[in-house]
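Standup notes
- DV: blocked on the single-chain target, sequence here:
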Amino acid sequence: MYDVIVIGKGPAGIQAAIYLGRAGFDTVIISKDSGSLGKAEYIENYYGFSKPIKASDLLNEGIEQAKRFNVQFIDDEVIKIGQTDNKTISVEGLKKEYTSSYAVIASGMARKSINVPGLKEFEGKGISYCVMCDGFFFRNKKTAVIGYTKFAEHELNDLMLFTKDIVLLTNGKEIQFDLKGYENVKVIDIPIKEIYGDESVKGIMFTDGSKEEIYGIFIAYGTADSTSFTIKSGIATEKNLILIDMHHMTNIDRVYAAGDCTGTLMQVAVAAGEGAKTAKTVIERLKTDRKK
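- DV (later): unblocked, structure below
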């Protein structure tokens, strides 16, 4: 069990981990990739650099700095956060489950989304982002999962608890997991043209003009971004942003958030500052816990 699990390997997450590690707390960063900074080319407006610095170099320097304070790094994709009791946070990854006293979500802003007409209109009317939350409502009904990665596979497994009539829609993408064991799942790899219905979802039309009657759709497209796993975890969000109080805590005690996922100005300097502020709050709580 760790003192703190930080989710996300961007400036907010690494800066938080540096403060936590330097204060002597057992800290781990869990991430599936390097976030937006890892995809950028150069940064030229960050304090302390007279010349533009490669984004990858800035990221790697942060990682090495965190490691100097004994911060561990784990490559995994977080799909759910919860409380096992009032002092323990459970973080479920695709590879395994992790526990800690506190968690800091610094998973960045989701910049990739499936752009399909009808998706927004039918959210909550047959379209959901969490099988374990809403799968019960589609018991024994024909239900679809939109996705093609390990995240989609995880949702397929959960959905099988509620119905056997399942369709996997890849939206033209190549499946990135082994279909062995899913022989009864109908796979459609034609790109989606639109989701249609009236009061609720009724079906999907594809770009070749074909249709598939569907009563429920679960979105598991790409990877489990901050919006996906926070909704699944019962963490309050608004317009795809995590809601936090003045101390950066979410609506779940001991779970904090910092950086782009909370709606701050999407700049490295701001993310790093937010990570530092969040870490200081968590450090004070950890100190108090140890006195008890």
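- Follow-up: The first strand starts at residue 2 and ends at 7.
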